What we know:
Strand content: over 45%
Radius of gyration: 27 Å
Largest sheet: 7 strands, antiparallel
Shape: elongated
Number of domains: 2
Number of strands: 24
Order of helices and strands: EEEEEEEEEEEEEEEEEEEEEEEE
Helix content: under 10%
Distance between the termini: 23 Å
CATH architecture of the largest domain: Sandwich
CATH topology of the largest domain: Immunoglobulin-like
Amino acid sequence: xxxxxxxxxxxxxxxxxxxxxxxxxxxxxxxxxxxxxxxxxxxxxxxxxxxxxxxxxxxxxxxxxxxxxxxxxxxxxxxxxxxxxxxxxxxxxxxxxxxxxxxxxxxxxxxxxxxxxxxxxxxxxxxxxxxxxxxxxxxxxxxxxxxxxxxxxxxxxxxxxxxxxxxxxxxxxxxxxxxxxxxxxxxxxxxxxxxxxxxxxxxxxxxxxxxxxxxxxxxxxxxxxxxxxxxxxxxxxxxxxxxxxxxxxxxxxxxxxxxxxxxxxxxxxxxxxxxxxxxxxxxxxxxxxxxxxxxxxxxxxxxxxxxxxxxxxxxxxxxxxxxxxxxxxx
Length: 330
């Protein structure tokens, strides 16, 4: 991943801040791979010299089962030329040498910044690196913090303290590497999953497999009587579910995000072939995550159909991919 250094000094201010408040303030952005905000610096007597200030995005995955407990989302690159752990950061004060390993204290240039100031920052996430969303589940917890570090005269950075550490609710980042149409209502080349049993045969159909978090997901369920000796079979119920499965260290947690249920006799009045249609309109809170960078963590989305007859229940399953933004590969 490439480190991005970007900041903008805003102004000197006089601020009175409660002791419990944070000095890191986030701003809204339309770009899914950016985090923007401001840092409030109060350097009062005794005046402290800064050799460098760095804002860093730190992510941790904590598994509650299995041999591995905590894993850094961005990893720790021992071969990196910088003293930082994460690879998503921006330097807001100091010279570039302050980031390098082995820099002698005599080479550091001090920055005297008396009074109160606000400095804008922007963290740019790598577009080719999927990131899991913030989440707290039964078997896994994913957290992100924005932390401000100050460069000391020793070889490294030290956290500025709790008031310069901000827990954020990160939406995750996983672009769709696809050229599929954005509209989920197009049925030119539907994806089909056939199923059979309990006196019927059928198929679950969706227009495509890749969706954005806010997109509607349409589906068709085609069912018909199977064979000629099942004239008395009754299809009593059709249930279609949108599922999210989180796999953490081989432990599985399944959540039903949305469902469509009908209860009726679909084969009455001599009908032997029927089609049930519906649309899931609810927004998905988490994108799919199948990147192998973090071993042991998967977020999978499926559409599941269950058809219940008087002989039992049968159905099928289709996997979806829910992304945060569209990336055209052409």
